[in-house]
Amino acid sequence: MNKILIIATVVLLGVVTFAYAHSQLNQKEGTNKETISQQSNKNKIGKGVVIQMNKDLYLKNVADYRNIKEWKFKGNLPAVIDFYADWCGPCRQVAPLMKELAKEYEGKITIYKVNTDEEKELATAIGIESLPTIMFIPMKGDPQVIVGSADKATFKKAIDQVLLAKPAR
């Protein structure tokens, strides 16, 4: 009986040690992945791709939503932010349009997307209440918003007029 108890204790200690070591490794890998992700996002700005945005990237590249006194855009290019959720049908219709627009306006604007289920604090702070919500952020002036799905022509018109200051056709 004592042998069984000793063997069970050794096995249990081995399992606990393995689980702890594995969790520490995962935490370290997660930190490395986050750093790599942040670096790769930095290299993608204005490069014709849609960039997945989190709260930290928003604070760094867009604005400090904690400062409600004054809007100050931090970006180097005008931006579009697509606030979406994976379960949202209209959001899924907008996603491929954003990818096309990112390619078409490469070097002129940056397009981001924010998963509101994963970034609840950010979405709440900005006041996102309906999905999809598309925010157009010019270099100067206040952001403009389209709530709900729209076609590519509508998004292009908003980009041209709000972000690139081209006259209406």
TrEMBL record:
CDD domains: TRX_family. Keywords: Disulfide bond, Electron transport, Redox-active center, Signal, Transport. The keyword Transmembrane helix does not apply. InterPro entries: Thioredoxin, Thioredoxin-like_sf, Thioredoxin_CS, Thioredoxin_domain. It comes from Bacteroides sedimenti. Residues 1-21 form the signal peptide. Residues 27-164 form the Thioredoxin domain. This is Thioredoxin. Belongs to the thioredoxin family. PROSITE patterns: THIOREDOXIN_1, THIOREDOXIN_2.
